[in-house]
Specification:
With 260 residues, the protein is mainly alpha-helical. The protein is built from 8 helices and no strands. The protein has one domain.
Length: 260
């Protein structure tokens, strides 16, 4: 576990309290969204402060600064994109997914550039991640087979990007045990985003006449898939933010002894 300073622990505690409190009060409102809107916004704002505060602790131009800036920008786009992707307007859903995709690119670059080289272990898990991504892309193509080829293949490429980025994170965690929080967060985040993508995929469209994404049930409430995606995505983003403090630690402890 990375060593966090007092301010980081305070921010993490406030975020966890808001998130857990929102879930608790949400249980008392069974016909309402999973998290009350105001609590959801407050939780997201606190979570945004965590990685950007971590970035302020880095040395300008250093490797940890590049890592922290990439992670902070990635979480910012992921949180924003997640909100837009759930909007009832199809075009906003597309913009939201595009923001998440750019966030994943920044995240993958941040993870890939950390460390001297892409060791064989990291390359192995990148390859495994791409294999899993290929399977997920196939599932997305089946869900979007009635749409235009451009939309279908774009959604499939997004699924592949998610899994490849996760493979990079797992590979880094195996070469540096303190990055275990990064791998755990990446697995949670990609699981939530794949659920969100599969939920949105059948109705993604650039046409203003298209029906909104099938993310609500007949009562107008978020579907079970959308609720599960929220439960997975937000804690995953918090763990990824915490990984910045792993990058701030002594780089000589990066290598895992069993893989030396």
């Amino acid at each position: 576990m990375p060593v966090l300073d007092v301010i980081a622990w305070v921010l993490l505690f406030i975020w966890a309290s808001l998130f857990a409190g929102g879930l608790f009060f949400g249980r008392k409102r069974p016909r309402r969204p999973l998290l009350p809107h105001k609590i959801q916004i407050a939780s997201a704002l606190v979570l945004l402060l965590l990685p950007w505060y971590g970035f302020l602790l880095t040395r300008p131009g250093a490797e940890d600064a590049r890592y922290a800036s990439g992670i902070a920008a990635s979480i910012t786009l992921s949180l924003l994109g997640g909100q837009l992707a759930r909007r009832s307007r199809p075009r906003l859903s597309v913009v939201g997914i595009a923001a998440i995709a750019v966030g994943y690119l920044l995240y993958a670059v941040a993870v890939a550039q950390y460390g001297a080289t892409l060791e064989s272990v990291r390359l192995l898990f990148l390859s495994l991640g791409m294999l899993v991504g290929a399977a997920a892309a196939g599932a997305v193509l089946l869900r979007t087979r009635r749409q235009s080829p451009v939309q279908a293949w774009t959604a499939a490429a997004f699924a592949l990007l998610l899994s490849a980025a996760t493979g990079l994170a797992v590979g880094l965690a195996l070469t540096g045990p303190r990055f275990g929080v990064l791998a755990a967060g990446a697995l949670l985040l990609v699981s939530g985003d794949l659920l969100l993508l599969l939920e949105l995929a059948p109705s993604l469209s650039f046409s203003p006449r298209s029906r909104p994404a099938a993310q609500k049930n007949r009562h107008g409430l978020p579907s079970s898939s959308d609720a599960a995606a929220q439960l997975l995505r937000v804690p995953g983003q918090a763990l990824i933010a915490v990984s910045i403090w792993a990058a701030l630690q002594d780089p000589t402890s990066l290598q895992f002894p069993l893989l030396a």
